[in-house]
Structures are given as C-alpha cells and as structure tokens.
Design brief:
single chain, mainly beta, 4-stranded antiparallel β-sheet
Length: 106
C-alpha cells in the first residue's frame, strides 16, 4: 500500500502502463551500475524517476527525448543491492518497470 501511494502503481506487477501499446523495458536485469531503457517514440520533456524498493524517490532525470535510442542512467555507487523502480512520464503516458540492482563486489 505504501508503494502504491508513492508510485501510483501496484508494486506486485512487474510493470504498469497507462498506454497499453508500450511497455517500459529496463535492461539488463539485474543491473550493476548502469540502467538502460528505451523511449517508445519521440517525446517532449520526458521525465524519469528512480525509486528504491520502499517507494522513496532517489533521483529525477530529464532525457533528451530521442525515440528508439537506448537511454542510460548511471546509478549512484551508494545504492545497495535490491529492488528498484523506474517511472517514465511522457506525453504518451506513464510507464513503470521493476528491476534489481546486483553489484558484484570486487
């Protein structure tokens, strides 16, 4: 219930989308220190929000909006292994994806 309040989606579902024609893909999954995702179409002022497993907003990004190109987010080194959520807000809708951070200790 707490995650639903903060993120406005059901955390039990791998991804929730307001536009059924597109699903946010996060790769690789699990990730190490870089998260990749793809924008569905050319977007005006997309916003990407990164949340931890408890629903706490960690970072906000403003990608350039180029469609079809993989976008990257370099994770803060202080992030722990665990479950995270990516929320993409575009003019086409709101898209979410769950992913796992699994950093290998050197």
């Amino acid at each position: 219930v707490i995650l639903k309040t903060y993120l406005n989606f059901d955390a039990g579902v791998p991804g929730h989308n307001t536009n059924p024609g597109y699903s946010l893909q996060v790769f690789p999954n699990p990730v190490g220190d870089v998260v990749n995702y793809n924008l569905p179409t050319r977007q005006k002022d997309p916003v990407v929000e990164l949340y931890d497993g408890s629903g706490r907003l960690l970072e906000v990004f403003h990608p350039d909006g180029t469609a079809g190109q993989d976008q990257q987010i370099r994770l803060d080194p202080s992030f722990y292994n665990g479950i995270y959520f990516l929320k993409l807000t575009t003019n086409d809708g709101i898209f979410t994806a769950k992913f796992i951070v699994n950093k290998v200790n050197p």
